Request: fold
Amino acid sequence: MHNYQDAQLLDQSPDEPWQAPSARRRLSSHPLYLQVRNVIAQRITSGEWKPRMTIPSESELAREFNVSVGTMRKALDVAVSDRLLTRRQGRGTFVNDHSSTEHAARYSNIRNPEDSHVRGEVTIVSIIETSVNETEVIRLRMRPKERVHRIRRVWASQGKPYMLEDLAMPARLFPGLVSPEDASLHIAPLAQKVGLLLGRHDERISIDKAAPDIADVLKTDTGTPLLRLDRIVYSLQDVPVEWRLAQCLLEDRYYFAQYR
Reply:
């Protein structure tokens, strides 16, 4: 048995071990396969199932959880859909490594003419921890006086800046985020580092004109058209974990969105 540590995931006491409904009173209104998926997610966030490791087979997990193979298969299907796991024909099911380029690229949509993700060099302009402002309270669903990390950074390609990003992240979700190394990471590997599993992200895309200070950072003319990307990334439990406002000088680049 494995102690379950996050009551929000399974609607049960954090110290109560997993038991199938046949062995316990039903503790959640969620379907059984989603309860199993949630325990799978907890094993990943706790580090019990590490990135790239092969997990036990469906039948082995079904026996361990005392559920049918069909229920376990459905739970694993959802975990695959949530990008927690990857199935490889003839090789098994693996825990995804969200620090890999493949998975981090899900949140990086700027591409070059060769249809490759732009992997630029990042410069950290500032990192501060401070109280939330009114906009952050709304966008990150936080309470007044809670703390956030604010990061400003500039991305460059071949020495030429192309994107200015302003990020805000709840400090309680990213404790100890003070180093330039951490602040330079994309959200996927950073979330994995602190044990967060990411879910959906919403992005508002618009066109803006470079204000004088932005134009100075991006080394372009005032009034140059910029792509404005206003994005919120959520955890698997639909909790906002990052708000990013980016202003991007496209030139020979473009924004690519994939829905699946």
Summary: The beta strands are 85-88, 92-95, 110-111, 121-131, 147-157, 160-170, 198-209, 225-235, 240-248, 254-255. The chain has nine helices and ten strands.
